From TrEMBL, chain A:
This is Glutamyl-tRNA(Gln) amidotransferase subunit C, chloroplastic/mitochondrial. GO terms for molecular function: ATP binding; glutaminyl-tRNA synthase (glutamine-hydrolyzing) activity. Allows the formation of correctly charged Gln-tRNA(Gln) through the transamidation of misacylated Glu-tRNA(Gln) in chloroplasts and mitochondria. The reaction takes place in the presence of glutamine and ATP through an activated gamma-phospho-Glu-tRNA(Gln). InterPro entries: Asp/Glu-ADT_sf_sub_c (IPR036113), GatC (IPR003837). The gene is GATC. SUPFAM superfamilies: Glu-tRNAGln amidotransferase C subunit. GO terms for biological process: glutaminyl-tRNAGln biosynthesis via transamidation; mitochondrial translation; regulation of translational fidelity. It comes from Rubroshorea leprosula. Subunit of the heterotrimeric GatCAB amidotransferase (AdT) complex, composed of A, B and C subunits. GO terms for cellular component: chloroplast; glutamyl-tRNA(Gln) amidotransferase complex; mitochondrion. Its main location: mitochondrion.
From TrEMBL, chain B:
NCBIfam families: gatB (TIGR00133), PRK05477.1-2 (NF004012). It comes from Rubroshorea leprosula. InterPro entries: Asn/Gln-tRNA_amidoTrfase_suB/E, Asn/Gln-tRNA_Trfase_suB/E_cat, Asn/Gln_amidotransferase, Asn/Gln_tRNA_amidoTrase-B-like, GatB, GatB_C_1, GatB_Yqey_C_2, Gln-tRNA_amidoTrfase_suB_CS. It is an enzyme of class 6 (ligase). It catalyses: L-aspartyl-tRNA(Asn) + L-glutamine + ATP + H2O = L-asparaginyl-tRNA(Asn) + L-glutamate + ADP + phosphate + 2 H(+); L-glutamyl-tRNA(Gln) + L-glutamine + ATP + H2O = L-glutaminyl-tRNA(Gln) + L-glutamate + ADP + phosphate + H(+). GO terms for cellular component: chloroplast; glutamyl-tRNA(Gln) amidotransferase complex; mitochondrion. This is Glutamyl-tRNA(Gln) amidotransferase subunit B, chloroplastic/mitochondrial. PROSITE patterns: GATB.
Length: 154, 572
């Protein structure tokens, strides 16, 4: 079970960093609302976990914020690394509480819920307001979206 | 550089006696263009930076022999773009070639609040292909997020399947082409999984756009602070289009086998109708992993990935080039220069070159996709799909083989599902399989090639081809006449009976009528008759031609010759 939890944690940390990324770089309105979206999405999960957990401190190693920032493609100043470390630690601790839950008699679940018949039919549906999407693109050079060229760092 | 190369050759006599021998293919079409040391001038040396060069003449019908003492290990990852009407997780239409950035919505643009909903057709196609590849299907599987930071996938991750793919542990059977020595092969399939495609990234250079080869399978770690504004262009129409990734076992041993594997996959997806399998459009993309090892060594060598393979012959030649490059390095004691990297195949120079070296361990940080539920297949669902599977290429080939067709015929007919359907429909109308195969592979194939048509465009339908063959067999028309009206039927359509009646083509099989014609020819050509009877028997052909001429080609050749000989040799 420990490995399963750490898998989730691995999932969570980039999530968290994504939030940082969009928060720090909030250049466009869509980025900042993405933060809201992610936050909204992950908060209930965390609350859910903490109510279920029976307490106990995390035995997981502290986060390597510099490495996390690298994997999330963001640059952090040293003071920001210091600032984020305890916050990320907090998230890890929340998940760390799950370690103590006894799951020996519980079947492993692939997903939290399994709704049946959740796939859709293969019927095209054109999204009407595409113009709004295009106008919200920071740099649109009709008909292309202009982006910075990513070059390899040597 | 070249002199080092030659010195090493001398110290490794097992490799070759002459430099060209390393790269020699069986028929010698492919050759090494290294210059000999004697003729080398300083200028030439400068131009000679790449050590190995293949000349690209007639690249298709070549077979490369791996130098003795070495073995190549090849595995292939194939991405197949599914021919669904909509994208994998949103209802945006998938139309190849539509105006850039028109098939987009909040889901495939990665906008906040948008949630993916799986297209049921993607599961159906995955199950079809999984079954066709003899895989074990996972009744429960899930989607995962693979971190991918590149502007062609705006979410910042690719929805893929990681530890629980929909299908695992299968195999594919294929027949190698006769010209490569033939033989049957079975290659293992490690897994098949569902995922989404990325958009297209183009770079503007001199006003032309060139497409960058990117993919979420690239195993490199990029850093965000290396963003430099140079103006790349993104078209997100393809972002979110469903793909199936098929991973093979490392079972191939040379470029030809790998190309045949890819060709069989293309046949399979086309037979199944899950993809158009078009390599030029990128609907079928192959990334190959190549490593070499001395035959006595058990451990695999360092593998190198090759991308940018847009045709089967590119797969073949790129792999053979790569094998020879690695063998050369290894034989020179520079095996450590074979590093884990991605190389691109360059069609112009017929070489692979380094795209990017691996910078660090791949860290995709996969985690379960929280926005999508588990994928559950019921046994009933799987069985219902199994029951609707068409006859697959391998089954077709084995069936054709039993019809006493040559392997050449079998491979040709089964190669294209439309040709196979045409063949099947013709023999279903009672025509002899070998005769039908001959007509299709001969004149019909030639006509299609000349007119650049596919078999579906041909106006001659299987029903009429069967009637044409029957008319010849029954003696109603001669084979020669049959051939003539075939081209008319191919181009204009119509019925065999209609054409025979219209042109009065029924073969003359009445001995009395033919006898009359022979008599007329003999009496018109008394001089030749005299010469014949004087011993110049070669003149028989002349008389046959004359009779054919007055019969307008309709005289039955067998009957004509019989009657002619009788009359020629008869006493006055």
């Amino acid at each position: 079970m420990a490995s399963r939890t750490s898998l989730m944690l691995r999932g969570l940390s980039p999530y968290y960093c994504c939030c940082c990324f969009f928060n720090l770089s909030s250049r466009s309105s869509s980025s900042s609302s993405k933060l809201f979206f992610l936050g909204k999405n992950s908060n209930p999960t965390i609350r859910y976990c903490s109510t279920k957990a029976t307490g106990g401190a995390s035995s997981l190693p502290p986060p390597d914020v510099t490495h996390l920032a690298k994997t999330a493609r963001i640059s952090l100043a040293p003071n920001e690394v210091e600032e984020f470390a305890p916050k990320i630690q907090q998230v890890i601790d929340w998940f760390g509480q799950l370690q103590v839950v006894d799951l020996d008699s519980v079947e492993p679940a692939i997903r939290a819920e399994s709704l049946h018949e959740n796939a859709r039919e293969d019927i095209p549906e054109t999204f009407e307001n595409r113009e709004a999407i295009r106008t919200s693109v920071p740099s649109y050079d009709d008909p292309y979206i202009k982006v910075p060229k990513v070059l390899n760092k040597e | 550089m070249a002199s080092t190369f030659f010195r090493t050759i001398q110290t490794h006599p097992f490799l070759l006696l002459h430099p060209t021998a390393v790269f020699r293919r069986k028929n010698g079409v492919l050759r090494c263009t290294m210059r000999s040391t004697q003729t080398q001038t300083p200028t030439q040396e400068k131009q000679q930076s790449p050590q190995i060069k293949f000349s690209p003449q007639n690249p298709n019908k070549t077979f490369y022999e791996i130098p003795k003492g070495y073995e190549a290990i090849i595995g292939i990852e194939t991405h197949v773009q599914l021919s669904t009407l909509t994208k994998a997780f949103c209802g945006c239409p998938c139309n190849y070639g539509s105006q850039p950035n028109t098939s987009i919505c909040p889901v495939c643009m990665g906008l906040p609040g948008a949630l993916p909903v799986l297209n049921s057709k993607v599961i159906e196609f995955a199950v079809k292909l999984g079954l066709a590849l003899n895989c074990k299907l996972s009744l429960n599987s899930k989607f995962d997020r693979k971190q991918y930071f590149y502007p062609d996938l705006p979410k910042g991750y690719q929805i893929s399947q990681f530890d629980m793919p929909i299908a695992t542990g299968g195999y594919i059977d294929l027949d190698l082409p006769v010209e490569f020595g033939g033989g049957h092969r079975r290659f293992g399939i490690t897994r098949v999984h569902m995922e989404e495609d990325a958009g297209k990234l183009l770079h503007s250079e001199n006003g032309d756009y060139s497409q960058e080869i990117t993919s979420p399978t690239l195993q490199y770690v990029f850093c965000s602070f290396m963003l430099i504004f140079r103006g790349s262009m993104v078209d997100l129409n393809r972002a979110g289009v469903p793909l199936l990734e098929i991973v093979s076992e490392p079972d191939m041993r040379n470029g030809m086998e790998a190309a045949e594997y890819a060709a069989e996959l293309q046949r399979l997806v086309r037979y199944l109708g899950v993809s158009n399998g078009n390599m030029q459009e990128g609907s079928l993309r192959c990334d190959v992993n190549v490593s070499i090892r001395p035959v006595e060594q058990e451990k695999f060598g360092t593998k190198v990935e090759i991308k940018n393979l847009n045709s089967f012959s590119a797969v073949n030649r790129a792999i053979d080039f790569e094998i020879s490059r690695q063998v050369l390095l290894h034989s020179q004691g520079q095996g450590d220069q074979i590093v884990q990297e991605t190389r691109l195949w360059e069609e112009g120079s017929q070489e692979t070159f380094t795209m990017r070296k691996k910078e660090g361990l791949a860290d995709y940080r996969y985690f379960p996709e929280p926005d999508l539920p588990e994928v559950i297949l019921t046994k009933e669902y799987v069985n219902s799909i199994r029951n609707t599977l068409p006859e697959l290429p391998e089954m077709k080939r084995r069936r054709y083989e039993k019809m006493d067709l040559s392997m050449q015929d079998v491979l040709y007919l089964a190669n294209d599902i439309n040709v196979a359907d045409y063949f099947d429909a013709t023999i279903a109308r009672g025509a002899d399989a070998k005769l039908v195969a001959n007509w299709i592979m001969g004149d019909i194939a030639a006509y299609m090639k000349n007119e650049k048509l596919s078999i579906n465009d041909v106006k001659l339908k299987p029903d009429e081809l069967a009637k044409l063959i029957a008319s010849i067999k029954s003696g109603t028309i001669s084979g020669k006449i049959g051939k003539e009206i075939l081209f008319e039927l191919l181009a204009k359509g119509g019925t065999v009976k209609g054409l025979i009646d219209e042109k009065d083509l029924v073969q003359a099989i009445d001995p009395v009528e033919i006898g009359k014609m022979v008599d007329k020819v003999l009496s018109d050509n008394l001089k030749q008759l005299e010469q014949y009877r004087g011993g110049k028997t070669k003149l028989q052909g002349f008389f046959t031609g004359q009779v054919m001429k007055i019969s307008k080609g309709k005289a039955s050749p067998g009957l004509l010759n019989k009657i002619l000989l009788e009359k020629l040799n008869a006493k006055n």
